[in-house]
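User: Please fill in residues for this 160-position structure.
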């Protein structure tokens, strides 16, 4: 993996998530989309490292440190190991993986925040569902530019 390109991509996505997209009511979780991207297209060890780094970046723009690093790292690792068995190469599989990962990481992050004594939002489930749907719909379309930037062959348009 090209780690310098990875760092630039994560910094760009973090700044975009915290700055520009913070003004919108319905926004995708770009860091989660990148988590699924690297879990699908990187090797298992690279996916595990990138999951923890992306979780740390998500915690930097979040209210508290720790919960998203744990949830992104845990579920990114599980997805990287699942990718050995299940191929997530088609767009609808990628969208489903993003949707499920968004719900799982959102629930675990909220559970960890509750353990820490943080207050929970009243529309917690609705917000997780909205973010999961938008991320699942938009995510596979962002895989191609991310693959181009990272110089990863996706073979999406290959004839079968």
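Assistant: Residues filled in for all 160 positions:
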């Amino acid at each position: 993996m090209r780690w310098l390109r990875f760092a630039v991509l994560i910094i760009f996505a973090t700044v975009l998530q915290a700055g520009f997209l913070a003004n919108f009511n319905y926004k995708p979780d770009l860091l989660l989309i990148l988590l699924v991207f690297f879990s699908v297209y990187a090797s298992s060890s690279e996916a595990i490292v990138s999951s923890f780094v992306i979780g740390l970046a998500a915690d930097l723009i979040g209210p508290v440190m720790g919960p998203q690093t744990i949830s992104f790292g845990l579920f990114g690792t599980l997805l990287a190991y699942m990718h050995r068995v299940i191929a997530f190469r088609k767009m609808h599989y990628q969208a489903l993986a993003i949707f499920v990962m968004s719900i799982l990481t959102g629930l675990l992050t909220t559970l960890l925040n509750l353990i820490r004594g943080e207050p929970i939002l009243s529309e917690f489930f609705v917000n997780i569902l909205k973010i999961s749907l938008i991320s699942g719909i938009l995510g596979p379309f962002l895989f191609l530019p991310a693959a181009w930037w990272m110089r990863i062959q996706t073979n999406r348009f290959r004839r079968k």
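For context: The chain has one domain: 3-149.
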